[in-house]
Amino acid sequence: MKTAVVTGASGGIGSAITRRLAADGFAVVAGYNRSAEAAETLVSELVGDHHSAQRIAVLEADSLDALNETVADSFGHLDVLVNCAGMSRPVAHDDLNGLDDDLIDEIFATNWRGSFAAVRALRPLLDKGENPVVVNISSVAGVTGQGSNVAYCASKAALDSMTRSLGRALAPRIRVVSVSPGWVLGEYAMRAPQDVLDSQCAETPLGRLATAGDVASAVSAVVNDLPFTTGSIVSVDGGRPLGTS
Description:
By secondary structure, the chain is of the alpha/beta class. About 45% of the residues lie in helices and about 15% in strands.
């Protein structure tokens, strides 16, 4: 049985990825931190069997240990780990005092350390998987330096660097790839003023924002169709870094 774990599965992008992997034939553990009801509802709607929702607090070692035990007892191996748990908060890039130390630490802990900790905890099960792969959900902000705040951009750049490092360190057994979307038309984007969304579309060569489905399709492609790809950053940004003429 093909198995997958998705952290942050109850969010917009995470739920789309979870649905796609279930449709691809994986038994999926849908991880959540606080949104238990949303995760349980998601699992009830998935196609296929053997899916489950589980609290996965990526900053808590006990939570990751419990996840490791659950997957080991239920399946004995893991084929796919998607690190989708993340956080941010809008702070203007020139507001240096607004980006306080506690927020910086929370962003880096969740977006970088949490992803690393999940890989570290689940590596023994990934080693037992069939063509195992880790997919880190990054952001074009890690390349452009434009995003919700300076620390968020830096955390995604660090995540991409980790992808490269682990792509080398865990080869040839485990592949590691970043999927890097631009603005995604979801909960965060819908809170932005319409003129901001319009400007983002205008500055993107393909003329629109990504959807959660676009990101899920990229994850599916990495998992199923790109067996010779590791340590790479797969962009889902409509060419945003290129700008427009």
